[in-house]
Model the fold of this input.
Amino acid sequence: MSITVTTWSLEQTSPADLRPAAPAGPDVAVVRSGTPSPEFSRFLYASVGGDVTWTDRLGMTYAEWEAVLGRPGTETWVAYEKGTPAGYAELQAQDDGNVEILYFGLIAAFRGRRIGGHLLSCATARAWDLADRWPGLTPTKRVWVHTCSQDGPHAMDNYLRRGFTLFDTEVTEEPEKPTPGPWPGAHG
Done:
């Protein structure tokens, strides 16, 4: 059985496009994961994406995770609430000053608490100054992201509120697959 999936691609072409959300509160901090860790990144990926059918990285080997995370210009930014990981954004430098927010989201238990707007604001700002932390990278000229109809119901609105504009829409038929978890019956 297949389902229709709509994918929207959005961009900012200037740091001035960013419209930051209000801070999420004193118990929320967004911190760069400075040491690439396949274990931690896989935990974030499975925990954030488990109920919205993120599956493309689940079969990756440890070495493949190391290669992805070790690529120059790749950063993971994690939102913590009271010391507990609440969500993350993975940035990836690409050619010609493009930076993709490759993965972004919150663990289900932390959604609806104003953390997502704050995390997206922080991650987008860090995408704009990515080359400052990576000597030799082209300064950022464009930050882009994609979201789809299988993502959380507030994802698109969050991107638009942060100043992203739509530049492409694609509709595809994809095989229907069960959400992988983080485990059956988790928040969802």
Observations:
- Helices lie at 38-49, 62-69, 115-128, 130-133, 155-161.
- Residues 115-128 form the longest helix (14 residues).
- The two ends are 22 Å apart (CA to CA).
